[in-house]
Description:
Order of helices and strands: EEEEEEEEEE
Distance between the termini: 33 Å
Number of helices: 0
Number of strands: 10
Structural class: mainly beta
Strand content: over 45%
Largest sheet: 5 strands, antiparallel
Oligomer: single chain
Mean pLDDT: 91
Radius of gyration: 18 Å
Amino acid sequence: MGKLVKIDKDMDFDVIKFANNKYALDDGTILRISCIVGKVLKHSGKDEFGNPNYLVNTRNFVVAIIKPEFRGAPSSEGYDPIKDTFEHVDFMTINEPWNEYKLVDGRMLKVKLVLAQVVRYEKRNNMGEPVYRIKSQVNVSAGY
């Protein structure tokens, strides 16, 4: 279980700059990933630079733009990330921007998703497209 953190307050914010990440996969697919900030909480303490600490809740929305020849019949069952067969796919970064949010306390919050790994499953979604799964990290920086 994680360490208990004292939450000072929920932080409302305005989106200042938002852009999708984009990656070219070795199989010819383009991945477009939106890292969406849903909630920001300010908590007690400061970072090593004297800035307040924030907990940032994000969700990723991943879209694969595939070659027509990759389309096939949808799988009859959903994929199981533990049991189903997959292969690793190399990728090249096209765009990996910092997104910016203005917090109600006057701070600027910068959020950047960094892609680490991509796998493609043999199973297909309901549109007959291969199922991709990503491993990523979200970097957060707060300042003025």
